[in-house]
Amino acid sequence: MLVPLYEAVYERLEVGPGTRLLGLGCGSGLALVMAASRGATVTGVEPSSPERLALGRQRLLPEAWGTRARADARLVDGSPGDLAAATGAETRAQTPAYTLVTAFEPIGCLAGDSEGLGEVLAAATPLADRGAPVVLAGWGPPERCATSSVLRVATKLADPLRSAGSWRPALRDDLEEVAQRAGLRPDGSGRVACPFGYADVDSAVRGLLSTGLFDSAIAATDQVQVDKELTEALHPHLRPDGTVWMPNVFRYLIARVP
């Protein structure tokens, strides 16, 4: 769903053979595969999903590419701190610093998500070159994101458990505030259209549940109730051919390592 975001950022920053990219929260590695296809050397860290990380490792196997550039790809289960520990001081001293850091997991949708990102950035920026760009991503204004009306189901059902982990509308300065708290210098931003499209309603329900945004709602009610309310909320986005289509806009911020 976020491929247009990755493409826009890589094009703007001219990602290519000279790029050493560190992807934070790399998930199943799609953004890393796209950077590697441009010739970049990629490293990813994923703290919360060993299953998605395993898929990322499959996607980045050297034999899948047949080129030496992809042989340098590395994925680590954990945080940037775990990456630093696994590398070792001697190896780090001999390894060039990262020239680009990306945090493509969008913030501004879950209560407390920006605080967690700030901690990750604090551990990651010492591994990057001075002046290296750090890219943060976030949900756009709710009125520009059709999916916002569906995500409100999570908030409604999660009450009275509504706190960290529940949905909230994105705020205009979410990304800038995270960058400033992490000691980064904002240096440009952009907006990208990223529509969410699904083959049918069942696929849309499964896809949205996989984001984790509805976990609190399921804990407060039950799976059946959440599935029912999600299906109803998706009805306005159902097209005559049975597919589900939700236009969205996402923001990205480019900040610099001091």
Overview of this protein structure:
The chain is α/β, with parallel strands linked by helices and 258 residues long. The chain has one domain (3-145, 168-197, 247-256): 3-Layer(aba) Sandwich (Rossmann fold). It is built from 12 helices and 9 strands. It has helices spanning 3-12, 30-37, 50-59, 62-65, 80-87, 89-94, 113-124, 147-158, 174-181, 201-209, 215-220, 223-234, and strands at 20-24, 41-46, 74-77, 100-107, 133-139, 185-193, 196-198, 244-246, 249-256. The strands form 2 sheets. The protein has a 7-stranded mixed beta sheet with strand order 3-2-1-4-5-9-6, with helices on both faces. Strands 7-8 form a two-stranded antiparallel sheet. Helix 1 packs parallel to helix 2 (30-37), helix 7 crosses helix 9 (174-181) and helix 8 runs antiparallel to helix 12. The longest helix is centred in the middle third of the chain and has 12 residues, at 113-124. The protein is globular and about 50 Å long. It starts with a helix and ends with a strand. Keywords: Methyltransferase, Transferase. GO terms for molecular function: methyltransferase activity. This is Methyltransferase type 11.
Q: Tell me the total number of β-strands.
A: 9
CATH first level: which class?
Answer: Alpha Beta
Biggest sheet layout: 7 strands, mixed
Number of domains: 1
- Structure annotation, total helices: 12
What is the residue-mean pLDDT, rounded to a whole number?
Answer: 87
Q: How is the CATH topology named?
A: Rossmann fold
Which oligomeric form is depicted?
single chain
Describe how the helices and strands are arranged:
Layout: H1 3-12, E1 20-24, H2 30-37, E2 41-46, H3 50-59, H4 62-65, E3 74-77, H5 80-87, H6 89-94, E4 100-107, H7 113-124, E5 133-139, H8 147-158, H9 174-181, E6 185-193, E7 196-198, H10 201-209, H11 215-220, H12 223-234, E8 244-246, E9 249-256
Helix pairs in contact: 1-2, 7-9, 8-12, 10-12
